[in-house]
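Q: Given only this backbone (174 positions), what sequence would you predict?
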């Protein structure tokens, strides 16, 4: 934590090496998060880069409170929500069509499974989708999710349970 505080202070003073270290520390984690929200890896990379740009734009106002990673997730989450508003339906149809044409039978089945799961995730309410992505795909602990989303631990557990129930229903596994 203290190292992170010093790194942010160096960035505030324009230390280019500190910016590189900061990006290197969080880039893969934020990219992974964005790629679970966005099936287009190139767009996920754009969202990741935009996350860091927005963080750096507000760096002079940023007050370190030991939750820099959470702040980056919040920025990325907001960008991903904007992405959903614009591309949700057309992206799934486009991905499905492209994959059908370009893949062999076994690869097509894997893609269909991924598309089916992605579509089921997209059909979940935002608050349920968010906890599922953070818990299963980002592999965050329940307490971390609770802290990040600013909700109680029992609510996180409830949302995960409800999301599982709805995903089973959506995937026809009841």
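A: Predicted residues:
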């Amino acid at each position: 934590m203290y190292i992170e505080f010093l790194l942010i202070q160096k960035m505030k003073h324009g230390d280019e090496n500190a910016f590189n270290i900061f990006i290197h520390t969080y880039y893969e984690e934020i990219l992974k998060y964005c790629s679970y929200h966005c099936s287009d890896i190139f767009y996920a990379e754009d969202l990741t880069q935009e996350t860091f740009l927005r963080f750096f734009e507000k760096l002079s106002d940023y007050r370190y409170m030991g939750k820099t990673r959470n702040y980056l997730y919040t920025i990325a989450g907001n960008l991903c929500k904007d992405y959903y508003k614009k591309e949700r339906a057309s992206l799934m149809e486009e991905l499905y069509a492209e994959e059908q044409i370009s893949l062999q039978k076994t690869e097509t089945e894997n893609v269909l499974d991924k598309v089916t799961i992605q579509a089921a995730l997209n059909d979940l309410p935002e608050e349920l989708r968010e906890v599922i992505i953070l818990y299963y795909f980002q592999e965050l602990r329940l307490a971390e999710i609770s802290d990040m989303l600013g909700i109680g631990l029992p609510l996180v557990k409830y949302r995960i349970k409800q999301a599982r129930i709805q995903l089973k229903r959506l995937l026809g596994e009841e």
